[in-house]
Predict the structure.
Amino acid sequence: MEEETEDVKIRELLAKIRQEAYDLHVYLGTGLLEKVYENGLCHRLKQAGLKVEVQQPLKVYDSDGFCLGEYFADLVVEDKVIVELKAVKCIASEHYAQILNYIKITGAPAGLLINFGSYKFEVRTVIPHSNEENGRVENGRVENSRVENSCVENSRVEV
């Protein structure tokens, strides 16, 4: 029951982030640098009362604890949702891989891949599947999301 409640909270948080991103896309349009959209979405989410971390470092470790490298998540919202922003013509498979890897690294329950570069608003919700034997995320479910007049059709893609 508690897991269902947490799932509902995550879904509500995802919906709030998607709506703020859509509103920002309508307001700014396309053609700006990714950093402008990052700053704008961060500002709007904070105005909505959400905790937002910008360019959150994500470290990757080897099995012996040695740090292999560091990535930076564009936004981390409420310590639960990784938001990866793009300002490209269309979302590519490497963008899906990027957000899925960020979720694996952090153990976050969900992520959003948002593209401001297309004339039609694009957002993908990424929810990890875990392997209960070793507790690791092995793949994820990507959901295409529709927000108001978004062009994206509802479907699911296995990554």
Q: What stands out?
A: The chain has one domain: 2-158.
